[in-house]
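Tutorial handout. Part one gives the primary structure; part two gives the three-dimensional structure as tokens.
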Amino acid sequence: MTTASPRFIGQPHDFDFLVGRWAIHNRRLRERHVGCDDWDEFEGTSQAWSHLGGIVSVDENHFASCGFSGCSVRTLDLAARRWSIYWINSTSGKLFPPVHGGFDGEHGAFYGTDEDDGRFVFARFLWRRGPQRIRWEQAFSLDGERWETNWTMDSQRVG
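Part two.
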């Protein structure tokens, strides 16, 4: 499986850029692993907080037009200098397996494994952070080599 380069490390306050409120434009692939290029587009909102001196980051996301919400919890393993990102979806209440990684400048890379429609997948999150705009991308791979981006979120700070 492809993993984040050693230059992608974690340190306290890496996710402090998220603190506050955001308007989110989402694009989510309609079908995964079949070569689909049709996307659903929808709006969302997010509110984020930093805790424990910047080693925990939490956000709550609302996607009203889709009828669900979600919560991300990020924790920094100080010894390993590695972030773990967990997702909880309101439709299941399930804590999904984490992705792990860190940042190199304004770019973040996080990798893990998950299940998608009953299939084992490798998961990748890519971040591009800034003070007023953020881009997050999720991609899955069946083999750890070929990645299919299936969800993007472009966020604009609103508070």
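Part three, for discussion. Strands lie at 20-29, 39-51, 56-63, 68-77, 82-89, 99-104, 107-116, 119-128, 133-141, 148-157. The radius of gyration is 15 Å.
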